[in-house]
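> @MW can you paste both from yesterday?
MW: sure, first one:
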Amino acid sequence: MRAKLLELFPEGFEETAAAEAVELAAYTDDAGEEHLRAEFEDVSSRPVQPGWEDRWRSFHRPVTIGPLWVGPPWEDRPADALAVVVDPGRAFGTGAHPTTRLALELLLELERGSFLDVGCGSGVLAIAAATVGFAPVYAVDLDPVAVEATETNADRNGVAVPAGVADARSDRLPATDVAAANIALDVVEAAVPQLGAAAVITSGYLDEEVPALARFGHAVRRTRHGWAADLFRAK
């Protein structure tokens, strides 16, 4: 259902708990309502309250991971922090999700070198890597919207992050000292063995799941609120 709604409204929708179910809401016009009713059986509509277009911002709160402050541009940042300012736009990733936080924790512990962000979303991991001294930093994603968001956010933070559309499961990507893949488990398992990286941070899956990666040995695991991130090193 979420996938179908995202297909109809790629700019996003709101998800809230309702009794024993989940309610998905899209802010749209009469034409959009017609599309909803054509796709779903249980649809209701009501007028929206003033300020609806900014409600989504309340869900994106800043977080602090070590020396990093990661947050949206409408929040005030501490003067003594390394700020990573990210406007998610229509791409996934603000830094607050447990998988992103766990990946950033692992990233901060690694020796600086070149870096590749696979499935970059809004560019949080790539921009954070560049901010703390990794170079050069590259980013790829299957979604052109994500690549555009990463480039925009990199410019906002004054860091160099060349980004491009690519499929890490089949396309040739830059060999780097460190790579990160905060994506679905099946994509992690298909893409990471193709990477020419000495160390790989993986995340995007539940703590009951452990990636099986050819050519890499498991080094470190972190968990938070039911999610997990792992560090693998090339054998």
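MW: second:
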Amino acid sequence: MIQLRNIEKSFPTRPSPTYVLRQITLAISEGEFVTIMGPSGAGKSTLLSLIGCYDYAWQGEYDFNGQPVHQMKPKQRAELNKRHVGFVFQKFHLLEDLTVAENLDIPLSYRNIRKPEREALVADTLDRFGIVGKKDLFPSQLSGGQQQLVAVARAIIAKPSLLLADEPTGNLHSDQGRQIMELFKKLNTEGTTIIQVTHSETNAAYGNRIVRLRDGWMER
């Protein structure tokens, strides 16, 4: 599904560039649950952002489902992201002026889906996540755990083939974090490929492989 070859990312600094990622070569198969670990500043979130096509300024080769991302124009990469990628952030990133139901509708609005179908998908997702009673509330009216549940629901409502999660339980209590990780595990068993960034060995144990970064390099 994902093939990275000699990926590098740097920022122009004097007297020489500052590298964030160095010679990253990595293959991730469809259906895997991969964890990226390493100390702060190791390049974990940068790598996740690059895989999700949120970051275009890098060197190397990246194939996604056989498509050469490194040869795509920004508009093509953005389209790939919208069609295939769901992203769960540590800080939720819900739109504060939209209700829960309206937040869930956002990813569907990017696609050619008629409004009645979108409404049905939102209703099904609210039911699946047990948040039907929260549909008309705004993010500020929810607890942290509830907000993250909505964020996960929003990330998967359009059935992405790839789910990326950057410290998804970092702001949650242990019970809330366990609920999110159990949900990820269920999604993975249903076929969703997942890549998470975490410092937690407990969360890493939910996946089937760990990739460790240090100072931008993959540890061998």
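> thanks! The chain has one domain: 2-218.
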